[in-house]
């Protein structure tokens, strides 16, 4: 029943809805549909939105084999190729105006990652060598422009305290034994158009300005996993191993059984934040990366981490047929966010597939899908999912489509269920 209902939702709701957002006059896809279902044809077009739509239609075509899906993917590809790429300085812009001219010229590692992810999938679907060439070019941009280079100096304003904590200018955060302020490895995040480091306001939240985030690292890993899947490039495999080391040594907190979220440049955490959605998403994306990488040593090292993360999310965040959002300083935000529910379905299915004695995970995936079906899907004609629900499970009146609200999470949930069940 789960697979049947999810496939029907994909084919009868999500695919027609997003094809209906196609801008055939200016290219790409319309960037904003209000809660009241009013389409803004002149809204900003986020490059992340376009990349995610490209990924969605490419993978829908790979799953269903219907030519109209490849045509939609091609429409997204041409917009990315012709408008989102900066031909002078390299990389992908943050956003464009409705005609496809640069609106926000910020270069962000997160944005480069989603373009690589989408282009790799589109290459798999279309066999268009140009798509793979662009993906490889963006990979080089990420490695040459976004990767951190440490000059050997101490991190400003922060230091390992030697007592199991890390002290920053305004807080002290307990860390596992042996953790210290690591030199700058991984990827810096935000840059000007010509790749001068800038404040990371786009991926920072909860009152901090993070130089590095778990979120960006996860999606670079996700993108490189897809690039490696379609190319088998050994250099990309080495970068995957580097990121897995960072997850295990810097991002994952074994004492708390969770990932930290926001960091300074030296991987000191900045806030006590438990992001339930990112943790369950990371668990299955890391497992997928391990499967594709096929490195036994890394699987033995990381698989216990993803197993623990999944178990803790099941016991700490799964309640009332759904996942609550996050906990900051121990205070739980009980909003039901659309993408968190989608990732929970996949994450619990993944956990069940790897440990089939844990039938409670399968039951949770089915239960959360039921919650999505009954509460999160917007049944109004011309809509898809609400952005979120409040504590009483009532819709929050946020946009149905915006630069972040796209078919990546819910569409991917459908595709993953169809593969896994």
TrEMBL record:
- GO molecular function of the protein, one example? cellobiose epimerase activity
- In this record, what's one Pfam family? GlcNAc_2-epim
Keyword Lipid metabolism present in the record's keywords: the answer is: no
Q: Which reaction does it catalyse?
A: D-cellobiose = beta-D-glucosyl-(1->4)-D-mannopyranose
Q: Where is this region: Disordered?
A: 151-171
Q: InterPro entries recorded for this chain?
A: 6-hairpin_glycosidase_sf (IPR008928), 6hp_glycosidase-like_sf (IPR012341), AGE/CE (IPR010819), Cellobiose_2_epim (IPR028584)
The processes (GO biological process) annotated in the record are:
carbohydrate metabolic process
- Entries under Gene3D superfamilies matching the protein: 1.50.10.10
Mind listing the UniProt keywords for this protein, alphabetically?
Answer: Isomerase
Q: What is its EC number?
A: 5.1.3.11
Role this protein plays: Catalyzes the reversible epimerization of cellobiose to 4-O-beta-D-glucopyranosyl-D-mannose (Glc-Man).
The similarity comment for this entry is:
Belongs to the cellobiose 2-epimerase family.
Designated name of the protein = Cellobiose 2-epimerase
